[in-house]
């Protein structure tokens, strides 16, 4: 089974890129972030036409998350992260898909930092970690994936000294992420590529993609019930070079079939 995550940075404006990538790579399950589309403007028919069923949580102009499945066997579990009923951002959706629990997230950016946006980010991570704690020891396989907006270590960014004051790399943000992983989650990319330079995002400015001046901020976390099935993981880096592409590239894992 192949599962992918992709921050599309506008699902309608970049729909040709998304459809091209889906048709070329045919992942079984796909998590999308930053739809930037209200609920009624999600391109369900175009996605259905190439063989995918979808559930999504849209929001006008900002945020938005979706889960796609080629099998169509999805049961939505939740579309709001617990812990703050006043938080109206569309940043989390969770479903049971092909005998997996899949959580798709778009974690807040947090900039400018320090300030209220960083405070919101840290509170969101705290809520997410509390929810993740309820999932990590389940017998059912759980995959939590998406744009975490966290650079875990200096190895995960080009010239880390330039990011020390950024909300993606501030010490308190990295510490919150490391505490999350320490619950018992496996960082799939680092599990299989512990010493490789791997980026998932390249800014549009200063020819960042051409210079490979990137960041690793899109992650897969796997609980113990599924981590042993991990067989491959990677980034479809070339997609970032397509015309009118997102500033993120798709990230994917492959799991062995359950016994």
TrEMBL record:
Its cofactor is Mg(2+). Keywords: Hydrolase, Magnesium, Metal-binding. InterPro entries: AP_endonuc_1 (IPR004808), AP_endonuclease_F1_BS (IPR020847), Endo/exonu/phosph_ase_sf (IPR036691), Endo/exonuclease/phosphatase (IPR005135), ExoIII-like (IPR037493). GO terms for molecular function: double-stranded DNA 3'-5' DNA exonuclease activity. Residues 4-248 form the Endonuclease/exonuclease/phosphatase domain. SUPFAM superfamilies: DNase I-like. Gene3D superfamilies: Endonuclease/exonuclease/phosphatase. Its EC number is 3.1.11.2. Pfam families: Exo_endo_phos. It comes from the Bacteria. NCBIfam families: exoDNase_III, xth. This is Exodeoxyribonuclease III. It comes from Chitinophaga hostae. The lineage of its organism: Bacteria, Pseudomonadati, Bacteroidota, Chitinophagia, Chitinophagales.
